[in-house]
Design brief:
- The protein has a 5-stranded mixed β-sheet with strand order 1-4-5-2-3.
- It has about 100 residues and is of the alpha+beta class.
- It is built from 5 helices and 5 strands.
- The longest helix has 15 residues.
- The protein has one domain.
Length: about 100
Amino acid sequence: MNDLTSDNNLAQKLTRECGVIEWPLLKPHYERGALIIVQEGLDIVSVGVEIAEDNQTQIKQWISDQRLIKPTPEQVDDWEQHNTHFKSLVVAPFVLMQIISH
């Protein structure tokens, strides 16, 4: 199997595993430091593929550009007060999330 086929299979697998979730189910991952916000404009599945394949160059660039960030306590307080929904994807040991409604 070539790299392109492997990437496509991984992307398909992660797409199937991606889902919508509310804050209370994400909070334990925040508390253990594993939650990462994928900023708007990035595809959460594409980010998951890069993390799963350990593409450190791309990941470091997204972090540098603040396109991948850790939640702040202020954001967490806001999410706890509202019925916020997120797109979520587990790429162990991390949990990726994107805000989809507030």
